Amino acid sequence: xxxxxxxxxxxxxxxxxxxxxxxxxxxxxxxxxxxxxxxxxxxxxxxxxxxxxxxxxxxxxxxxxxxxxxxxxxxxxxxxxxxxxxxxxxxxxxxxxxxxxxxxxxxxxxxxxxxxxxxxxxxxxxxxxxxxxxxx
Length: 136
Hints:
- 46% of the residues lie in helices and 17% in strands.
- The chain is of the alpha+beta class.
- It has one domain.
- A two-stranded antiparallel ribbon has the order 1-2. A two-stranded antiparallel ribbon has the order 3-4.
- The longest helix has 35 residues, at 100-134.
């Protein structure tokens, strides 16, 4: 396997973890949103990754890509608050199905995976540089 393919594979991991971090940020930014309708409230989003097994001119052979971003199907949180201006006719407001603890764990995991891919790239770069210096 060429060293450049290793860099390509690590780059796909960096991209995937960037998307994961962005979805976590979006989920965390909307955790306090409120709606009067359970169908209109923000729903937690999660990226679905897919392994790249065969390459073409645009993608490397090996690595990972984001297949899609899906909404969590857990129900929205109902809160009885009849005095709230957005309360429905029964006195309920709806909050997103975002779990802050899960999102923090996702953020930490994505950050670690991102750091690991950076380390793979740095190590590959060092090996390439040492290989070049062998010829001197």
